């Protein structure tokens, strides 16, 4: 597989003017659509959409920075640089790139692990010569920013490598139930992490297995120290934002643009400043937001060895969320997105932005819906949203300094509503697919209890196990013909389908390989009711019974033949009167009644995608076993790749020849019914 991927890359690097242009246009998709941008049709919608999305970017950037365990201003930086870069490299016209709760929480977990509070406790002596531990928050925050930045740089490098190696397919292992269960669990983590800001209490930040339970217990223990003012402000904001969100959802067809609830809430900054609630009521606020952009800096690469595993998980989750949203909007609006280019785009956004003090980004569900519903047509909407964030950072960032943190917690909690609605998946999955429901539940429970990193690993492992389980327990049926149609269906499901005389048609919807070849053979014997050993014994018993009955009739008619010593092997013929001929017959009665006259078995391979050497040997062996009892096995419905596998495995050698291979079940049936008139039908 890796050789094939490298072959594609070498082919892409073939030097020619046309090839170079193709590569350039593929790497920078903006060159394909910007020259033909229809200004009159698209510009107004993109402007309105960009402003609406930018209004949401501001409060969410500030709020999600708290999840990432970095000062809020870094959320604004992350809402500018990556969004700007995605305009040039991205292929989705409607997704809003930037901060996202799940990714921010994963970043924050790593930052807290690498820079815990205990590392920054310093001693301070007071006048009574007693020593108290003081937390150096400035040094702690600076270190956590360094961790978040280098982690983002590594995530970008991983995504770029996967994109250039064409590994966009990795998301197939993150099925929709897995992602939805995982993001719902992440929403639970985020919600509990925001309770301390809503209540205005101080608790340590936990990570690892059972961290969500530890955080909840810490909040419950800290309830006696709740800041009542912070709770009132937070609850009022939650109620207001929920009402605005409900109005926007209910009247989205009538409203020209959604009501910007978050920005209205942030206007409460003025009230906070006027009432001086930080000084009078000890309500935690956003704090210092420096005006302007920080100069670029090289990340601290000495931290890389401890972050590689975390970076892989964050890179995959980030891409999975982004490509899922991109495909939804692409399908709705009739265009395509390139998974590999999306990997490259996210990689460029993360890698380059890490030099400008940003943390990892992906697509936001809530902002993408706003960008699409307000008339956004192209990536220009995201570009304008980033310029709006830039204006705030450069000119009026100081306005947000007195913003209470409980307000940001309220914004985060209300925006989690869409994720918690994914709990509605459970009844539908119960009706449609119990296996997918199991994936959803395992992903959710594992991610809640074990943490997002270990939970994702467990969820992916369980999803792969379900694939193995499905190949180990496929549906196995006997087919019969619908009269005068040439169509063959399950005889147990369709009353009109009847088995062909003397022929059994076996179908199993699975590939045949080392893990299930024995199960396939056992299922073949069970469903057809034909075991070569039992069939031989049954036929011998039937022949003995027929012989005994013939001899008895001759004796009764007085014309019994004289048996010589050679015929009796020198033994006397025992009388038949004391033996019950039905005893031997009953031993194989079901086999004799239904299957004694079976002369052919057709293996329907139309559902077989691949076969390995173990599977090929098993099929070849069972064909020989049945041939010894005069039952011929033929194959039908092999696709081209499967036939190539069989040829490569030297399947058609010896007694197994191409004469036993047919393009369809009906061709195989005709051959089995009239073998003398059939030739090689499929080569």
From TrEMBL:
InterPro entries: S04_transporter_CS, SLC26A/SulP_dom, SLC26A/SulP_fam, STAS_dom, STAS_dom_sf. Keywords: Membrane, Transmembrane, Transmembrane helix. PROSITE patterns: SLC26A (PS01130), STAS (PS50801). It comes from the Eukaryota. Residues 493-672 form the STAS domain. One of its GO terms (cellular component) is membrane. One of its GO terms (molecular function) is secondary active sulfate transmembrane transporter activity. Its main location: membrane. It is found in: Membrane. It holds the Pfam family Sulfate_transp. It is a multi-pass membrane protein. The chain crosses the membrane at residues 62-89, 95-112, 147-174, 216-244, 311-331, 343-359, 380-400, 406-423, 435-468. This is Solute carrier family 26 member 5. It comes from Scleropages formosus. The gene is LOC108920922.
């Amino acid at each position: 597989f890796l050789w094939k991927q490298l072959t594609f890359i070498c082919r892409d690097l073939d030097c020619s003017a046309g090839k170079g242009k193709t590569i350039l246009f593929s790497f920078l998709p903006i060159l394909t659509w910007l020259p033909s941008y229809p200004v009159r049709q698209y510009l107004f919608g993109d402007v309105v959409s960009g402003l609406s999305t930018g209004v949401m970017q501001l409060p969410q950037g500030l709020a999600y920075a708290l999840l990432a365990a970095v000062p809020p201003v870094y959320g604004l930086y992350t809402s500018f640089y990556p969004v700007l870069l995605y305009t040039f490299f991205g292929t989705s016209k409607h997704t809003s790139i930037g901060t996202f709760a799940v990714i921010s929480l994963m970043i924050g977990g790593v930052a807290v692990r690498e820079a815990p509070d205990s590392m920054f406790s310093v001693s301070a002596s007071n006048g009574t010569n007693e020593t108290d531990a003081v937390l150096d928050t400035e040094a702690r925050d600076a270190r956590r920013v360094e961790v978040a930045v280098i982690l983002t740089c590594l995530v970008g490098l991983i995504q770029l490598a996967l994109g250039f190696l064409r590994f966009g397919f990795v998301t197939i292992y993150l099925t929709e139930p897995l992602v939805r269960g995982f993001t719902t669990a992440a929403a639970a983590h985020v919600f509990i992490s925001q309770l301390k800001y809503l209540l205005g209490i101080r608790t340590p930040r936990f990570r690892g297995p059972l961290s969500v339970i530890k955080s909840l217990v810490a909040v419950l223990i800290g309830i006696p120290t709740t800041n009542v003012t912070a709770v009132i402000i937070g609850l009022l904001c939650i109620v207001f934002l929920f009402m605005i969100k409900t109005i926007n959802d209910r009247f989205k067809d009538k409203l020209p643009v959604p009501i910007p609830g978050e920005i209205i809430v942030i206007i409460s900054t003025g009230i906070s400043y006027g009432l001086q609630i930080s000084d009078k009521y000890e309500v935690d606020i956003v704090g210092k937001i420096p005006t302007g952009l920080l100069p670029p800096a090289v990340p601290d690469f000495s931290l890389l060895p401890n972050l590689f595993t975390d970076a892989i998980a964050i890179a995959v989750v980030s891409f999975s969320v982004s490509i899922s949203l991109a495909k939804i909007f692409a399908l709705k609006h009739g265009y395509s997105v390139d998974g590999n280019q999306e990997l490259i785009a996210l990689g460029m956004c993360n890698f380059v932005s890490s030099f400008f003090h940003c943390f990892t980004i992906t697509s936001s569900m809530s902002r993408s819906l706003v960008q699409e519903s307000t008339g956004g047509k192209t990536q220009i909407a995201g570009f304008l949203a980033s310029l709006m964030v830039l204006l705030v950072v450069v000119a009026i960032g100081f306005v947000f300094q007195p913003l209470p943190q409980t307000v940001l917690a309220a914004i985060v909690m209300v925006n989690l509503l869409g994720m918690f609605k994914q709990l509605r998946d459970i009844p539908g999955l119960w009706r449609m697919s119990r296996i997918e429901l199991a994936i959803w539940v395992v992903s959710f429970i594992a991610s809640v209890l074990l943490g997002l990193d270990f939970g994702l690993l467990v969820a992916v492992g369980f999803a792969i196990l379900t694939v193995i389980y499905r190949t180990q327990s496929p549906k196995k049926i006997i087919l019969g013909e619908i009269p005068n149609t040439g169509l063959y269906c399950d005889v147990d499901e369709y009353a009109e389908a009847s088995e062909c005389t003397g022929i059994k048609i076996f179908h199993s919807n699975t590939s045949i390989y080392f893990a299930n070849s024995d199960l396939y053979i056992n299922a073949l014997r069970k469903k057809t009711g034909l075991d070569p050993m039992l069939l031989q014994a049954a036929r011998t018993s039937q022949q003995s019974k027929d012989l005994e009955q013939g001899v008895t009739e001759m004796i009764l008619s007085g014309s019994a033949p004289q048996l010589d010593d050679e015929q009796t092997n020198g033994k006397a013929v025992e009388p038949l009167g004391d033996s019950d001929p039905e005893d031997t017959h009953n031993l194989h009665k079901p086999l004799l009644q239904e299957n004694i006259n079976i002369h052919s078995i057709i293996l329907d391979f139309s559902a077989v995608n691949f076969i390995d050497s173990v599977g090929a040997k098993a099929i070849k062996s069972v064909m020989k076993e049945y041939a010894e009892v005069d039952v011929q096995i033929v194959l039908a419905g092999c696709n081209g790749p499967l036939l190539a596998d069989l040829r490569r495995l030297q399947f058609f050698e010896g007694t197994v020849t191409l004469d036993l291979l047919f393009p369809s079940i009906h061709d195989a049936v005709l051959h089995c019914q009239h073998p003398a008139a059939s030739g090689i039908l499929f080569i």
